[in-house]
Design brief:
Blueprint: H1 2-16, E1 37-44, E2 54-61, E3 66-71, H2 77-82, E4 92-97, E5 100-101, H3 107-113, E6 114-117, E7 126-127, H4 128-133, H5 141-150, H6 154-157, E8 167-168, H7 177-189, E9 195-199, H8 207-220, E10 225-229, E11 241-246, E12 249-254, H9 256-262, H10 264-275
Parallel strand pairs: 3-10, 3-11, 6-9, 9-10
Antiparallel strand pairs: 1-2, 1-4, 4-5, 7-8, 11-12
Helix pairs in contact: 5-7, 9-10
């Protein structure tokens, strides 16, 4: 056991001592003024890869706009949004948030204001309240309940006898996939972000609840720039703008009705799901 423990400790220490490639600039910007986003001729390839995962990406999102991103598996939808909070840096071109290059921001300040909810999120051991406080340490129960309502999570949390004090097992294994996703969305709202990115984060939620979440966002979160990556057309069809991705490039861009007229890729996705 001691031998195995020593080997494990060595690997853990290697991780802890790894220097990140992406660091904050000296005297980085700490205030994100708004949620506007610009991609200017952006190309990106992963380390050690010879092929571009993103090619010539060029578009703008106004602050407060609701944008959908759709495309087949492997079209680099998730790669695209990972450049916004600097999980990766563009290989060529510029990514701007609030008119400033993301490389000019203090990383913590940028990531606090660009909230990303992934398809699979981690809930921590403790209570529902403890998990929500990861988003805002000083929040009171009123704010937590507000966020849970917006994410349609209060519907099931209020039924627990202990409410916000309900126990969360490691990884949230005592919740369904859809419940975990809704709790993760609520936690992201606790930060009051300027930009909220939902990366297929309602995939385990039924269509009716998904529609309620989008309705809440449209009604009460109009000031937050919302980017929704989805497989279902129904999740993005009421967005102000929809970006259709294909093989790492933008195939088409516009609203739902326009894309049905102009984009064969979007039309095929829509038609196949309507048949289903």
């Amino acid at each position: 056991q001691a031998t195995r423990g020593a080997a494990s400790a060595k690997r853990i220490i290697e991780v802890l001592e790894t220097e990140p490639d992406i660091v904050s600039p000296e005297n980085g910007i700490t205030l994100v003024e708004d949620g506007s986003i610009d991609f200017k001729n952006v190309c990106f390839k992963y380390p050690l890869s010879s092929e571009l995962a993103l090619k010539d990406i060029d578009f703008s999102i106004a602050s407060g706009e609701r944008v959908g991103i759709i495309g087949s598996t492997g079209s680099s939808k998730s790669t695209l949004i990972q450049l916004i909070p600097r999980l990766y840096d563009a290989s060529r071109g510029q990514v701007l948030v609030a008119g400033r290059d993301v490389k000019d921001y203090d990383i913590k300040a940028l990531r606090d204001q660009v909230s990303v909810v992934l398809q699979t999120n981690t809930l921590f051991s403790g209570t529902i309240r403890d998990n929500m406080l990861w988003g805002d340490e000083g929040a009171d129960d009123e704010k937590i309940i507000w966020a849970l309502k917006k994410a349609q999570a209060w519907d099931f949390v209020k039924d627990y006898e202990d409410g916000l004090g309900h126990l969360v097992e490691q990884g949230g294994t005592n919740f369904s996939g859809g419940q975990r996703q809704r709790l993760s969305i609520a936690r992201s709202l606790m930060k009051n972000p300027k930009v909220l990115i939902l990366d297929d984060s309602t995939s385990a939620v039924d269509v009716a609840t998904d529609a309620k979440i989008r309705a809440e966002f449209k009604k009460d979160l109009a000031g937050i720039t919302t980017i929704i990556i989805a497989q279902r057309v129904s999740s993005v069809m009421d967005a102000d703008k929809i970006i259709v991705m294909e093989k790492g490039q933008i195939n088409a861009m516009g609203n739902h009705d326009a894309l049905l007229e102009t984009s064969q890729v979007y039309k095929e996705i829509y038609s196949s799901q309507q048949k289903g």
